[in-house]
Amino acid sequence: MSTVPQALTQTVHLAQLRLEERSREVHRDLTDATSLHNRVQALFPDNLGPQPRAATNTLFRVEREQSGPVLLVQSTLPINRSGLPAGYARDIDYRDLGPLLDWGREGRVVRYRIDTHPSMSQSVPGQRGKRIPLRGEEALQWWERQAVKAGLENQLALDIPQSDVRARRGAAKPVRYSVIRFEGVARITDPAALRAAITSGIGRGRAYGLGLLSIAPYRS
Fold first, then answer.
1. What's the CA angle centered on 169, arms 183 and 149, to 5 degrees?
2. Distance between CA 121 and CA 21 in Å, rounded?
3. Cα-trace Rg, the chain
4. Reduced to 3 DSSP states, what percent helix, strand and coil does the chain have, rounded to the nearest 5?
5. Class of domain 6-99 as given by CATH
6. Model pTM score
7. Distance between CA atoms of 206 and 202, rounded to whole angstroms?
8. Domain 100-217 class?
9. Which region holds residue 196: left if phi is over 0, alpha if psi is between -120 and 50, else beta?
10. In sequence order, which residues have a C-beta less than 8 Å from that of residue 22 and are 6 or more positions away?
11. Distance of CA 37 to the CA centre of its chain
12. Which of 4, 12, 38, 61 has a beta carbon 3.0–4.6 Å from 212's, enabling a disulfide?
């Protein structure tokens, strides 16, 4: 008896938080990837097991708009807004992505956006493989492969370098992710793969604001 992958049955929630730039907590979180990661995780229960982010498929991304910074938080469990400090967000919009994901049938055309860390493993004799960041044409080729796996056929892809993300993992050595934002237009070829990619995220650095794939209907 076959089973339906969990990523295809879970409700996906999106919270859009318009942040208050005058807040000291907001300023700290926007300049410290580890602090922002902790802030997002504080919006969910403590009893989620050893991998709390993965348990709720939590992904996030910061958008810089003219009106101020916006924090997008996507998850399969709604956020608890009481986990935010007073004055942290000017307002919060909530959305169930189910109707959008149901709309995303084969052949439909979408606009997309995602912040990523394109990289590859480089062999080092006598050592573990070292991951190196990709840029330029190599980064675009990396995204093309990821898009195909996510059920998308690129029709237009723009690569926009972003500021590096630096984060700490306890006592371990800090990690650094070079970030490229890909946005463009694509045709849906595999709705199930697309839904899974949107729900679970793509690539490395998902705990620190990378890998959230956003789509919207394309209107020329």
1. 35
2. 38
3. 18
4. 25, 35, 35
5. alpha beta
6. 0.90
7. 8
8. alpha beta
9. alpha
10. none
11. 12
12. 61
